[in-house]
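TODO from last week: model Patched domain-containing protein 3.
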Amino acid sequence: MPASFDYLIHRAFFQWGLLAHRFRLALLIAPILLTVFLSAGFIYIKQQTTIDPQYVFSPKSAPWRYERDVLSQHWPLNEQEFWPGKSYDYNGYIDIIAAGKFDRERGRPNMLSASYLNELERINQYIIHNLTISVTHNGKMYEVGYTDLCMSYDWKCYLNDHITMLMPKNKWADFRGKLAELANDIITNEEGHFDYVRAVRLTYNVREEKVGNVSYLWRKKVATYLADTNNPASGLIEFGMYHNESLPEGLQQVADSLTPKFAVTCTILFAFCGLSCVVLLNHNGFFAPDWVRSKPSIALAGIGVDDMFIMSAAWHRTNPDLSVARRLAETLAEAAVAISITSITDMLSFGIGCVTTLPSVQLFCMYTFAGITFTYLYQLTFFTAVMAYAGEWESHGLHAVTLKPAIDPRDADTLFKRLFMVGSAPRKDSLQRTDKIAPTYRIPTPIIQITSPKGITKAPPLSTKNNTLSIMEKINDAFVRLESKMDHSDQGLSAHHDRETFISKIFREVYGPFLLTESTKKAVLFIYLIYISFAILGCSMVEEGLNPKFLVRESFYLNKFYVLMDETFWREGLQMQVVVNSPPDFFNHFDRKKFQAMLDEFENTEFTMKHNATMLWLDAYERKLDEESKQLKIPLPKTNEEWYERCREWLITAGGRRLWEKDVVWGKNSSDPETYNHLYAFRFQLGLRNYRTPTDHVRSAQLMRAIAAKYSQFNVTTFHEYYPFVDQYIELKPALIRNCILALISMLIVSFIMIPNYGAAFAIAGAICSIDVGVVGYMTFWGVRLESVSMITVIMSIGFAVDLSAHIGYAYVKAHGDRKKKAIEALETIGWPVFLGAFSTVVGILVLVTVDAYIVQIFFKTIFLVIVFSMMHGLIFLPVLLTFVLPHAKDRDAEHEIPETVCKKDDSANRQPIKDKEELECARIDESSLAEIDLSDPVEKEQHTDSRVMDAGEAESKPVEETESNQKAINNNSFDDEIQSAENVSATKDGNLEESGQEHLKRSQGKNDAVNILPTEPGLRLLHSKIEKHESRAEMCSETENKKRDDFSHRRKSQPSEQDKRKMLEVESFQEAERLAAISDNKSGVSV
């Protein structure tokens, strides 16, 4: 059967740990050099910087792009033929809203009051004539103002003459244009009479061609003048201002306000991560930091990386007596799936976000995807190298900060030394000279050594049968040339220590048992039902779109502009462009009636004002024909050609030229009257109302586009300056649903691959769905709308959700025991690192609360909800759920692990304590016994053997437990004791054999359950007999296990081919040992 992914990744990471330790210096330096090299890309940062909000916040294929192109094709911007109200392109455009200062009792004052109009005119004249900037040209200084930079019509600037039109009628002069686009809340009846104005708009349009930089400086100066709160421009009027650089400037100000917050965030995270890497040392009841085992260097290297906590926890679970290479390999092997799930799922989540149609989301996901990819690579290289060096410092007993030998706690005579200088003892030198176990990733091969007075020689490797190599063995052979040799001192040591930490004790003895009580489970179920109910309710109430005022800080001048717009012109007074690309034949009564029906439908919606707010040249022309017919007795046009010819003459020569000439497109070939007087396209403006919220924007745009599509024969196009935001709002929900579905499918596939249990994978997918529903639902209650920023964070929530949930699910599957033990073991193993990783993220974003920008607040709120709900699911809901739905979850890849089955004696329920090890039906021979080599002093060996025999006897006096660990310990002691006894007897044969054997016999006979050792037999014969016993036991083990496999179905099943292979190797090993022992002389000693 092919090896599982779980097995492959553990094996690969174990090998990588050995290799990384060997080449730690290269892995430390190479990422730094790569970072320095790639940082050269910052020289292109200005070229890559995008400041166009319309590009960033709107889909690339948004309809507004086509709609604006239609306008630009028919009416391209001409800076020498500009007329306000007809512009659709806001380059060089300044829009100012002037309103009287708000009074809580009376609200906004009437701008028709003489005092307000005079003040407004004063401000207008100051901006036009007095607000200048200094420009140096050809060595001379010039003062440049609005009249030098303005767009013009007939070489005249637009000077906001409508202010005068709002004054008493005797000051109106010749102005007769409609005011719908100039003032708000002015129309009170169909005749256009008004007596109240809430706000007035002023416009200043400056040229961009050739003088764009100067125009930009002038616009900046106007903004500074009107936004100055220390020296306000007026005591009566407040102003809101917008120009084409305002929104980019506001967004940049938000980014700049975050920069100093990063320093605070980094300081907090450094402190938090540093404290989390401190290990406490208990010396006679006094707790102090263990500066040998503490790893502040790891905290510095892994700052901001949640997986740092998982790898750090895995390191501390390894046996400190192991070599650094082995500890690093064990650490990476244990953390392999956890850190891979974290990185791969995040990369998939943001990779899917890269294919969205929203450029803001796409750009963010692209950069984040690259960041996560490099984080994963650097974690396996740079961070691993740092761990290797930190491990070396720990192995040599060096202080983690000063890198000098730490003080033994017993030698710390002052409080300062106890707190800042003490540490654990360095790794024992004796362990570095003793081989005890073979590498865990290979099937162990016995080593036979023959000791003679002349020295020590090693026999050739034992022969094995030429079996077909499995895929994993081939991979193992490929690593042989690269892998680092295992430290011989690792042999005989377990990979993990049994020391208990305070946190693990809390999870195992307090939190875990409490969470899994029946009453707590019911409470958890009740809490979850409440949680998911409110989440679904919130999802049904979610609102889409982002008010533009929330894109900038509250203190930025653009915020005031959008506040005044919300109070005034968004309620009533905006204008929308309507383009008729295939005009009807207006001389034809049927076509004229069809067009009028379309116009009536446009004007009579909840988002448009009535006909008196529509600016259409056709109405003025038809009134002109009626006036000529009634007053001048000029007959009406009798043919189509005459109608259009008189229309064009009226637009060119009559008074309507300025207002209407830019609304029609005529033929340009004057030599051909038929095409010259042909109307190719025209446009008109509709007055808008009820345009306050993003939802209103979306509904209005959809309605206007639907009406235009209804009259397809006219090829109608509609456009408004807020359409770019509208198209973003329209795309948000479909894009979010599409991305979430794709991400969930991807997460499920990853879970199936990396989580060795399909049920657990489905449970994790369910947790992800639950978290996403909770985030979207509860952000509605928190005042967060669905827009690009919240969509980004929802995409991020998928990655966070699968991180925390997958860690718990994987640990639950890999744990042993019943459902309660598995859940507690999962929480004990991974609960604390998961909590630290999530909590560090919350700590990192807390500073965002202090930024007075709504988009930053949105980011904080959604990320906070993501982390909190992910922790709730990972540490509360999911463990309880797994105990319900997967009470007997098993690792589907368990057959790839080394079998640990131990056959037990088939006795009755009232079994008697075992009196002798011979009563065991069979026992698996552990690899640690096969590779143990000890050539120590015979006297010390005898004493050590005696103590081990006593321990083995005490273990056998107890009933055989059903747990594998106890049986394994008994079997290991059994074989170790017998081999050790044989070594003692053989070692004392020359001169002292008889005496030592008798003493040993007496001690053995004093215990009823001791191993029956014959001290008078020569050592080689005893070894021969013990080997035969174990050969028979190995055979009995296989037979007994086959008989009892059904009775012990709850135990882990072993792969028959792997077990047979191991048994065959063990038997051949003993036969080889017997052969070598037989050729030894009487002066030789043999130890296996």
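Done. Residues 921-1087 form one domain.
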